[in-house]
């Protein structure tokens, strides 16, 4: 079993055990719309630039870690939120994902991820 699958299994267990998605030393509360079924559905996202992982879906929330450009990360869902503007681009979509061991789960603006406006997460993956 590869490391991403092991991480997904650990995350699913945490959801079932305590209703929160957490890993490592920092964590962010799971979105209210994240159901048991959705906890098992993960998608892969890849940052196009190093990006902050935040404790909530907005730049006012604390930074709990950073995604590294070019690496892949498991993502769970997306939602519309605060608009982020950087390098002449804008996005109002935030992705709930796992930054891995030592970082935990949190939110990143889709602006920093490859893919379409939702970082290629399906419309049905809304938090």
Low-confidence stretches: 1-26
- Main sheet attributes: strand count, strand direction, barrel closure: 4 strands, antiparallel
Whole-Å distance between the termini?
28 Å
Q: What is the SS-derived class?
A: alpha+beta
Global outline: globular
What's the rounded overall pLDDT mean? 79
Structure annotation, total helices: 2
Could you spell the SSE succession in H and E letters? HHEEEEEE
Proportion of helical residues: 10-25%
Strand-residue fraction? 25-35%
Number of strands: 6
Number of domains: 1
Radius of gyration: 13 Å
What strand line-up does the widest sheet have? 1-4-5-6
Structure in words:
With 127 residues, this protein is of the alpha+beta class. It has one domain (3-125). The protein contains two helices and six strands, in the order H-H-E-E-E-E-E-E. It has helices spanning 3-18, 36-40; strands at 43-45, 51-54, 63-67, 73-86, 89-98, 105-109. It has a four-stranded antiparallel sheet with strand order 1-4-5-6. A two-stranded antiparallel ribbon has the order 2-3. A hairpin with a 2-residue loop joins strand 4 and strand 5. The longest helix is centred in the first third of the chain and has 16 residues, at 3-18. The protein is globular, with a radius of gyration of 13 Å. The termini are far apart.
What is shown here, in short?
The protein is of the alpha+beta class and 127 residues long.
Which tags fit this structure?
127 residues; alpha+beta; 4-stranded antiparallel sheet; two-stranded antiparallel sheet; 2 helices; 17% helix; disordered N terminus
């Amino acid at each position: 079993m590869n490391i991403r699958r092991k991480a997904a299994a650990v995350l699913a267990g945490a959801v079932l055990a305590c209703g929160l998605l957490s890993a490592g030393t920092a964590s962010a509360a799971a979105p209210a719309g994240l159901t048991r079924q959705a906890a098992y559905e993960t998608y892969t996202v890849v940052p196009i630039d190093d990006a902050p992982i935040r404790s909530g879906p907005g730049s006012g929330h604390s930074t709990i870690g950073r995604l590294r450009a070019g690496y892949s990360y498991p993502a769970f869902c997306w939602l519309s939120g605060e608009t982020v503007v950087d390098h002449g681009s804008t996005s109002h979509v935030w992705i709930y994902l796992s930054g891995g061991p030592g970082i935990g789960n949190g939110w990143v603006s889709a602006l920093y991820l490859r893919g379409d406006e939702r970082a290629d997460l399906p419309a049905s993956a809304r938090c």
